[in-house]
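Notes from hallway chat w/ T.B., transcribed later so I don't forget. T.B. wanted the structure written out for a chain they're using in a teaching module, and asked if we could keep both sequence and structure tokens in one place. Agreed to drop them here.
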Amino acid sequence: MHGRDGKLILAVVVIGVLWGLNWPAVKFMLSEVPPLTLRAMAFPLAAVILAAIARDRRLAFLPPRNEWPLMVVTGLLVVFGFNMMSTFGQLHTEASMAVIIAYTMPGMTAVLAALILKERIAPRQVAAVWLATSGVGVLVSEDLPGLFRDPLGLTFMLLAAFFWALGNIALKSRSWSLSSIVLTVWFFVFSAILSWPIAFIFESPLDQGLPSPAVAWTFAYHVIGPMVICYALWTVIVERLPASIAAITALLAPIVGVTSAVVLLGEPVSWQKSLALLLVLTSIALALASRR
């Protein structure tokens, strides 16, 4: 195994574990912190931490003028759109179901990549997408009546998946002059600028009480892990892989998300979840094999 392959696999594992654990973490924080306030607090903190890292590395912060419009759109899709929709989705569905629905995005990404980026989809990639989609379908079939009784959860999560897929297509559509870390800084800045006015209008963050210590520590994990580390690594992966493959590699996250929801939130284990876990693991193996 080449050193670069090892780093890629390590990045996939880190993203999968941290983003997977983030689903029950967000569900837990929402018990005390309103959704708009949660995002309005997390976005600027993540931007400041990443900016400090970028400054320590003496990275350039300003892109050419022609990159600004697409950079704004990309940031609002992959950070603001995905996080806002997934947060509201978790208000209306279980954490394990939310992560399952969200990860319909690999199929969306593959289709958008073929239509917009003209990427050629190899047979192994088709098989990987099919297996991943089948796994999600098996999981969703576990409680279809429950999903349709409260369609807002399904709607928000499908929107989150679409925003994420479209945002990654935008990220992949050109070569950026800025480094991955600085790009991520700007994505969080744009999202923070948009989220704060909305939060003040609908939730009045300054009038809310302080969260419990448990929620505060969970929030710290949420910012440092899923926000700072995962988004920085994800932009690197998308730069180096075709968009359809990059989306599939992140499917490790629902495995961890479902498992952690069962362990931490007491959600039931079923044969559907076990079968879906096997299908998704196989899809990741195929995606990495096609990469090599």
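Follow-up for T.B.: The CA atoms of residues 81 and 163 lie 6 Å apart. Might be a good example for the class.
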